[in-house]
Amino acid sequence: MDVVELINKYGFPIVMAVGMGWIIKYVWEWCTKEVKPVISEANTVLVALIDRIRMLDNDLIRLNQKVNTVLHLRGKTIEYERVEAEAEINKQVMKKDTADDKKPFSRRDDIDNEKEENKKSAASGEG
């Protein structure tokens, strides 16, 4: 039968309703046969990727904690070494200060010492 004959026999709304029903049936079958398996496979891949991302995130969190711990401990070590070096420098300065305090400083003493050293070097050069 031709479409024109069907419209004359049953009317335009009925023929269009049947045509729309056929289109809906075709789209439904296409979706369930072709699209649904692809979506299902993509969903499986997506779940696997989400699991991997979570594992990587957990690994990054653990690694970050380890790095922070190492940096914190290394910072304490560096600070300890700095404090020890500062204490050693202070000891040396204090030793020098106490030695200098026992012997009063005089520019005259330095000049006399230089004269004596010059005399000794001159005497050793003559001989």
Q: Alpha-carbon distance between the termini?
A: 144 Å
Portion in beta strands = under 5%
Describe the global form.
Answer: rod-shaped
Arithmetic mean pLDDT: 84
Low-confidence stretches: none
Please give the number of β-strands. 0
Percent of residues in helices comes to over 70%
Tell me the number of structural domains. 1
- Based on CA atoms alone, the radius of gyration comes out at 49 Å
Structural class: mainly alpha
> What is the N-to-C succession of helices and strands?
HHH
Biggest sheet layout: none
Number of helical stretches of at least 4 residues = 3
What attributes characterize this protein structure?
single chain, 127 residues, mainly alpha, 3 helices, 94% helix, 0% strand, rod-shaped
Fold and architecture overview:
By secondary structure, the chain is an all-alpha fold. It has one domain (3-103). The protein is 94% helix and 0% strand. The chain has 3 helices and no strands. The protein has helices at 3-10, 12-102, 107-126. Helix 1 crosses helix 2. The longest helix is centred in the middle third of the chain and has 91 residues, at 12-102. The radius of gyration is 49 Å and the shape is rod-shaped. The mean pLDDT is 84.
Summarize this entry quickly.
The protein has 127 residues and is an all-alpha fold.
Layout of secondary structure:
Layout (H helix, E strand, L loop, with lengths): L2 H8 L1 H91 L4 H20 L1
